[in-house]
Fold this protein.
Amino acid sequence: MQTLRAASSRFSANPLSLTACLLLWYLLTYVLLPVLPIRTGLDESWRAFLTWAFEHHRQFGTEVIFSYGPWGFLLEPRGPISVYPWQIAGRSVLAAAAAGGIGLLAESWIRSAPARWIWAAAIAILAEPATLIPVLLFLATMPAAAGPRWKRAVLPILAFATGLSACAKFTGFLLMIALLPVLAIRRTWAWTAAASTAAFLLCWLTAGQVLSNLPAFVKESLEFASGYSTAMVAGLPLVVLPMALCICGLPVIHFAIQSPPLRGWEALVRFGWLAGCEFLIFRHGLIRSDPPHFYMAFVTGAIPIAILLIAIPNAAMEHAAPRWRASYSGLVLGSLAVSLLYSQVAVAERWGLFEESLRLYPAYARRLFAPAPQPRAAAPAATTVDVFPDELSYVLCTGLAVRNRPVFQSYGAYTSGLCRKNAAFLEGPDAAGTIYFQPYTIDNRYPTMEDNLSWRLLLTRYEPSGVRDGYLVLRRRATTAPARMTAILDRRVRTGEFVDIPAAPGALIWAEFDIQRTFTGHLLDLLYRKDKMALRVETSGGAADFTLLDETAAVGFLLSPYVNSVGTMQTLYEPEAHRAPAAGVRRFTILRDRASAIGYEATVGIRLYRLAIGPSD
């Protein structure tokens, strides 16, 4: 027994033992997990597509516009076993950096071996490594964190992993860019800024991206992020707002109180970087205030960072520090308990995916050591396929050749710039030869407001050729059908006032809404989230309310008929005289509740056009 205790004591005293155990944990639960197969579903579709886009060197910023970068598949890969070596390579870098960074800070900050192990285990179990890496580099280069002798070996790994995380998600890119001046303030750590930049460029090139495409990636990612706080609003934030403020605000206050004294600009820049990091996490969790996003933002991001800062060395308030630290720790652990309870559905889903990955280990072992299969012949260009609006996983599962729009899921084309990007692609020579269409929306949006300009091109550039697996199959026309718009109404109305559509049975009605945001609305867009207004439409089947996207409504969208099925979509290709008027919109109004009234003016400009497709009579 004494021998076992002695061995245990030596193991706890070994400064590298904690890092080694953390690395083993990450290898078994993160790095070596099999890639889950492609399946249907909105979120599963973009996960599978990101994996496919990496393997096929799709250019991010031009061919792919999303909130993730070319290495984004590392967070949640879906697809064939061919991507598995890349997952192992990328996640090994993130795992080594996370294990080394946590172990480094544990030895630098915590004297008690049991406390060190409990603290490190809590962070490793909860945190998504790609989110944690920039924070670890930020803290490892703090002036007070002198660290052990092996610190010089860990910092290059952290710097490289920070560049990789910036290539995985656009939030990571923003954090890396903001971190560069923080690191460059002190000459001692200026090399880490250069190393992170070099690592990002290396990862960018390794993913098959071209350097000349980098400005487009930044520009379009900013465009995608700019509309997120309005278009993607969902849920009731008041339920979790106090918790979110606590989770994201407390670490900033704690850092200001506990961190080592810094001089001049360094103090302001470091405090600003951490505050900016917490602000991004706060918005991520609150814009879509649902359990999955709350889990991703707070349980795997903000709370591990808050736990990480529990151990930061105290530099002031020597008498009050223990009481403050105890209060802070209690609030963080209480927030963790409540967050896990609120996001229990997401936790259960993640656990189910983890168990599924474990069950795939035997099959992966057999396939990895089996003879390589013969490569499949590429599909001819004439069979290129896109899916409208979202379900690209259908094409990936069936093995058809993908030719996607830049904003590859229609719900993401929620700004005028993104709408025009997709429309320009469909007008060009690279558009898919076939589009599989099946109406679907998120957040109860009006269907034709998603990727709104593309709807008009579906009518002029494509024509139906049958139905397959519930999808309307649209083939590209040999020549584009002409489209003509005739103005039929132009007026300004108050919200809540009904607008009657001039009688035109079977006609296609195109609408443009001039919706003005208030100063408070612009401020909410920048700092928090802005609730949307509603569009109420009345057809012969009754009235229904939909969430309204103000930016796409300003560019224009197909208002009538109301397209909610493959059958309704088919009727749009028929001559106007033959269209059944049942789905035609008779009148509509725009509604503001108390929350949306803060962000929008009370009057709206309405312009209606009669849209005619095909040769004129």
Remarks:
- The chain has three domains: 14-352, 381-476, 483-613.
- The two ends are 98 Å apart (CA to CA).
- The chain has 24 helices and 14 strands.
